[in-house]
Amino acid sequence: MSSSRRPVVRVLAVAAWSLLAAIAGLIAIFQNTPMLNQSMLASSVDLEPAKMKPWGGLAYSHPSIWFGLGDNERSIRSGIVLSENGVELPQSKSLHADIRDRGAGAWSHWNRVILFST
Predict the structure, then answer these.
(1) pLDDT by residue (tens digit) across 96-115?
(2) What single-letter DSSP state applies at residue 116?
(3) pTM for the full model?
(4) Are 72 and 79 in contact (CB under 8 A)?
(5) How far is CA 2 from the centre of its chain?
(6) Interatomic CA distance for residues 19 and 21, integer angstroms
(7) Are strands 59-63 and 113-117 parallel, antiparallel or unpaired?
(8) Are 36 and 76 in contact (CB under 8 A)?
(9) Helix (H/G/I), strand (E/B), else coil: 110
């Protein structure tokens, strides 16, 4: 290989590794890994009442696209904390039937939806 082509190959290799690192960082953020929960990106977000929809019984849903993926069948676990008036709701990861039927502040972050009860 000629010496004039070596700098081009090095630049391409650095660019490829940089792109791979950027993609891995975005995946980590949007998959809600501990990286999100331990970084300065973790913050408080108010749920928008206009986006809350009845889900049946005592349950309501709210899209959670900005919170990363919640619990799901691929063993991803949500790290969000849901609070009401500054008080943490302790019944996270509740069964969806319990959220719908029993209420009492039960909630779940499942895939890209937060299910919560009154």
Answers:
(1) 999 999 999 999 888 788 89
(2) E
(3) 0.58
(4) no
(5) 48
(6) 5
(7) antiparallel
(8) no
(9) strand
